[in-house]
Amino acid sequence: MCRLLATTLGALIGCTDVSTTVDNDPPVHASRADGHRAMLDAFGAKDDAYVVSEGQLAAGDYYYRVTDAAGTPLSADAAACRRVHVGNDGVINLVYTGADQGVACQHPCRFAASGLTVKLAPFADAAAGEYRVEVAQDVDFADAIADAFFIK
Asked: Beta strand 42-43 with 145-151: parallel, antiparallel or unpaired?
């Protein structure tokens, strides 16, 4: 709701391009640890950004990563460290333990109203603090679902 109001208000006072469409209900997006969206999808620090599924993904295993606005991968660890399971209800219900160069790894997760949220960090810096979270069933991310977010 806040995002829609901010976009509408911005359009009225000339702060945004009114022809730009806003996806208010992406199936996955960057969130706060509690699963709620950050105001205008902007976070104060990388450690504040988590990924959440809003119940629209098919059940199965997925990988996630952070990219810059152009799609260049920025996630700093192996894809096996960023593997989750989505249950029949379309939300993340399991965070797998993976291995990166022989060392066990797993991103921290939190319980939220819509399943689990999973920390996106570690990832490299992007120009102007513009990022995307991508989620896909294959590690090549060919058919990824993506949503933009920002680090102030």
From this structure: parallel
